[in-house]
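Page 37, continued from 36.
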């Protein structure tokens, strides 16, 4: 019995996109603190509005559901807004690190067929992204378009992001992670998700 109970790790994961899951959370805790970086702070309601505005911005630049978008930003509130905005737009987030060699950045962007690279003034030099359209962003409050979520069809089985490993041959290899994969991790009952918990953003 102890073995069975210990290995009983099955739990329900909603069959919706990450954008929809976030909207549900906003409805429950609109005024709760969602993200802070020391210099800026957003509630769930504010983050939802700014992310939706950013989603409209990238859609206006030609990004469609399933399109890969590179993100080369310092960790900040703007980074979280950007990623959530991409989820709302149905785009596929491709995280990049300014410490990567230019050749690696160039390879990842080419391998994913990224349409756009979102960056800031601190990260763009030597990015190796000469062939990709650049979108500079400094603040999550930079866009003032329609605050409503864009009308795009995004499901739980669609790609949310592509994470590149070093690869056994030294050539970076992309691993596709779906909206459902991310939701399953976030909703794992073994994690304490009480209102006063803090989660550190460490990876790009």
């Amino acid at each position: 019995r102890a073995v069975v109970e210990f290995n009983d790790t099955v739990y329900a994961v909603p069959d919706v996109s990450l954008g929809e899951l976030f909207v549900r959370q906003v409805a429950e805790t609109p005024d709760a603190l969602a993200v802070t970086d020391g210099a800026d702070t957003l509630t769930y309601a504010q983050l939802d509005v700014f992310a939706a505005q950013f989603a409209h911005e990238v859609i206006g630049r030609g990004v469609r559901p399933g399109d890969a978008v590179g993100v080369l930003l310092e960790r900040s509130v703007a980074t979280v807004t950007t990623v959530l905005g991409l989820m709302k737009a149905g785009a596929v987030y491709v995280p990049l690190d300014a410490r990567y060699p230019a050749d690696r950045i160039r390879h990842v962007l080419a391998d994913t067929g990224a349409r756009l690279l979102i960056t800031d003034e601190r990260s763009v030099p030597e990015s190796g992204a000469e062939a990709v359209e650049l979108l500079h962003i400094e603040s999550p409050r930079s866009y003032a378009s329609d605050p409503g979520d864009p009308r795009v069809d995004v499901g739980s089985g669609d790609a949310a992001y592509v994470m590149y490993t070093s690869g056994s041959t030294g050539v970076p290899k992309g691993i596709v992670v779906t909206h459902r994969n991310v939701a399953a991790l976030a909703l794992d009952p073994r994690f304490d998700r009480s209102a006063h918990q803090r989660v550190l953003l460490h990876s790009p």
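The chain has a mean pLDDT of 84. Flag for discussion at group meeting. The chain has one domain: 2-140+155-186.
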